[in-house]
Amino acid sequence: MCLSICPVKAISGGPGRLHVINLDYCVGCGACARVCTNSSVIDHMGNRSSHESKRNWMIPHFDESRCRFCGKCYEMCPAGIITRPLSGKVPELTNAKLCASCRWCEKVCVFDAVSFSPASGDGAV
Fold it and tell me: What distance, in Å, lies between the first and last C-alpha atoms of the chain?
């Protein structure tokens, strides 16, 4: 599961084999840790991960009244699932199921136009 959830394909390995995270590619989103049912991922602080059901993951929502269409959110999205609005509306997710909940879009938004809420609330995941 962690191989398929990594938005930048930083994990190698296979079923029954050791999985290795290439730190040159890892963006630190934590998705691999949240999907690992064995709590095998250890973060940079030495803490073991804990499994979290994907239905409890958060996804971004964009506030049209705050968004200034600067593009930072979709440029920074490691999964590449935030699209630039074509009709002057707020950015959109092309596939909410692929969102790694890294919150990078929220961190780079200087207009506070991005907020997160559980994916299950809107039926996206």
Answer: 16
CA distances from 7 to 66, 72, 86, 89, 99 (A): 27, 17, 24, 25, 8
Task: Looking at the structure, tell me whether residues 58 and 91 fall in a common domain.
Answer: yes
The whole-angstrom separation of Cα 32 and Cα 36 is 6
Evaluate if pTM is beyond 0.85: no
> What is Dmax (Cα atoms) for the chain?
49
Q: Which domain holds residue 98?
A: 54-122
d(CA 66, CA 110): 10
Question: Is 38 found in the same domain as 84?
Answer: no
Digit-coded pLDDT (tens) for 8-63: 888 888 777 778 888 888 888 888 888 888 777 876 677 777 878 877 888 999 99
